[in-house]
Amino acid sequence: MFPTVPNDADTAVEPRLRAWLKAAATGDRASFEQLYRHCQPRLSRFVLRCCGRPELAEEVVNDTLWIVWRTAGNFRGESRVSTWIHGIAYRCMLKALRDGVTSEEINASSVHEAELAMAEPAADDAVDREQRDWVLRGLATLPVEQRVTMELAYYLGETCEDIARIMNCATGTVKARMFHARVRLRNVLPELGGLHRPASGTEGQP
């Protein structure tokens, strides 16, 4: 149902990310540019999928990568570089939401087809594209914390422990958010797909 990012791919590129970040901490702009080019597209897709607003996503990504440049020396190596950057992006997104957009507006917002095309890898299969659109509409009904948790887990391939670091909460809280998100999606996705549940007391009736 959800696209995932293999952790093996992240593990393979981690030494390069750490080298670029370490060099950026010394003021090496060329290394930061390499880090930026690697992280910006995926980060932009993640933030846009979470908030559904291109202008807000662009602001959040710009703020995130500016903070990465200024604080590169603060990375202690206790997590993957991508996990550290996603944590910064999450905090920047929460700040942007508090400053100007309510969570209700974000959850109710829809992304136009052109914007969805920017947020998703290209695909030739119309069925797959329709399924992704269906899932995105289901995710848009979730509270912000649940939606971000699901995006981090299933789209970016973060572990529960890493999500806890990113969202500054207990691992048990992450698992609870995932549980409640799955329950809600099981309830809303059939309706969004045109498959209405039978009314109470009518199960089994023709």
Q: How far apart are the first and last residues' alpha carbons, in Å?
A: 30 Å
Task: Please give the radius of gyration in angstroms.
Answer: 18 Å
CATH class: Mainly Alpha
Structural class: mainly alpha
What count of domains describes the coordinates? 1
Q: Total strand count, please?
A: 0
CATH superfamily: RNA polymerase sigma factor, region 2, helix turn helix motif
Shape: globular
**Average pLDDT score:** 76
* Strand percentage: under 5%
Oligomer: single chain
Provide the helix percentage: over 70%
- Which runs of at least 5 residues are low in confidence (pLDDT < 50)? 1-6, 101-127, 195-206
CATH names the topology as Rna Polymerase Sigma Factor, Chain: A
Map the helices and strands.
Layout: H1 7-24, H2 29-51, H3 54-71, H4 81-100, H5 103-108, H6 113-119, H7 126-139, H8 144-155, H9 160-167, H10 171-192
Helix pairs in contact: 1-2, 2-3, 2-4, 2-8, 3-4, 4-9, 7-10, 8-10, 9-10
